[in-house]
Amino acid sequence: MSFRDLLKISLGSLSRRRLRTFLTVLGVFIGVTSIVVMLSLGIGLKQFFMSSVEQLGSLTQITVYNYGDATQDKNAESKFLTDEKVDSFRSIPHVQDAYPVLETSVLMKQGPYEANVTLTGIPIRAMQSIQLREGTYPKESDNGVKLLVGNMVGTSFFDPKASNRYDFDMDGMEQKVDFHLPMFTIFDTDSYYAAKNPASGDDGTKPTAPKKYILDTVGYIEGKEGSWNRYSYSVITDLDQLKAQLRKIYRKRAIPGQPTNKKGKPYRYFIYNEARVDVDDMEEVEIVQKTLQDMGYQATSQMEYLKQTQQTSNMIQAVLGGIGAVSLLVAAIGIANTMMMSIYERTREIGIMKVLGCDMRDIRSMFLIEAGLIGLLGGVFGLVFSYGISVVINRLLGGAIAGSEFGGDTASVAISVIPIWLAAAALLFAVLVGMAAGFFPAQRAMKLSPLSAIRND
């Protein structure tokens, strides 16, 4: 018999026993839905973990620190992160760029509001990867320090004279200052707070208040109000301009955060607590990181966190997939039971087919096709229903999880993801499970004695 004939006989057999077929298909439907939804949750969580790690920083960037606290250890001069040392990192294979990062604490004031802010200096070339919602990047031709500000910096300001200045209300977070207006900035915060103290200095004179500088903001980093990203609370400026400003303010005095030599005098060059190394390939990050560690530096990257999250997501995916597989196993048992009952009911029909000279393989194929059709029908309906459940899960939970993870961002997160390969694999697996469950009954049908089958009532 041709495949078309076998398919026609199988469909006719299934249609004659509609209730039994429906219940068996329902079992496969539940099994496929369970395993697809469970695996989609695992895939979605894996992608969510990946995006969460990327929010913390680039997956191809390594952050390098002095070994221990080198700026305080006077015997660690050979491990100081200087411009020369950071430049040498570029010679490491697979390193695209390396640059130092200089951070200094400043006090910013506008109107009645003020905030202690960490001013971060990086080279202008390193700023190009930062997405701006408005404005431009600082330029080498700029006169003085120009700023890039994150979307949440304005919420850090408070009124020092207000009675509730230490209260924190998440719903009441608002931008209290306008960075489009000039921002008064105090670099020498120690002298500022000393001048505010009514006590006199060691020589009986009151400390002089430090000079205030007006800094202009030229760029505003991408980010919705109330949402969080890695630059939300960052204030960034050109490294060279920041160093020039600090040298001008402190002259021959030690710059806060910079180490001194054994005589207590500042070094003639800047020493950085941090440097960043960009790698050309994510697969090479761990190798470059190990090289930097062998040089005596602390080196960290988001790949460490990514590996941990991948292990967690793989474990979750295995557990969820196992739960779904149990449902599909139960469905396979149901298919086997249905096919066995079908053989018992059609024993006489099988005997007549054998007497008429029907090929044994055709009899086996007929039952295998019947079992495969049950698996296919259950797989198709289960897959369609799985897509519906996935949409509901993402609409109900995606926005809530995005808000809790990223500080109120209204963009939803896909918690359940069904890629094309999963849909195709689910259909194929359902058909194979059906045929596997029907294999033993098909073999039994093929081995029935024709005479015994005909005599069967």
Structure description:
The protein has 457 residues and is an alpha+beta fold. The protein folds into two domains: 3-55 and 309-455, no CATH class; 61-280, no CATH class. Helices cover 49% and strands 14% of the residues. The protein is built from twelve helices and ten strands. It has helices spanning 3-16, 18-56, 83-88, 124-127, 189-196, 239-250, 285-294, 302-345, 347-355, 360-405, 420-447, 450-455, and strands at 61-65, 95-110, 113-122, 132-135, 146-149, 183-186, 213-221, 235-238, 274-279, 298-301. A six-stranded mixed barrel has the order 2-3-8-5-7-6. The longest helix is centred in the last third of the chain and has 46 residues, at 360-405. It is elongated, with a radius of gyration of 35 Å. Residues 168-172 and 406-410 have low confidence and may be disordered.
Brief write-up:
The chain is an alpha+beta fold and 457 residues long.
What general form does the structure show? elongated
How much helical structure, as a percent, in the residues? 40-55%
Largest sheet: 6 strands, mixed, barrel
Number of domains: 2
List the total number of helices.
Answer: 12
Count of distinct strands: 10
Task: Compute the CA-based radius of gyration.
Answer: 35 Å
Helix and strand pattern: HHEHEEHEEEHEEHEHEHHHHH
Quaternary structure annotation: single chain
Cα(first) to Cα(last) distance is 26 Å
What spatial order of strands do you see in the largest sheet? 2-3-8-5-7-6
* Average pLDDT metric: 81
Unreliable stretches (pLDDT < 50, length at least 5) are: 168-172, 406-410
Helix/strand-derived category reads alpha+beta
- Strand percentage lies at 5-15%
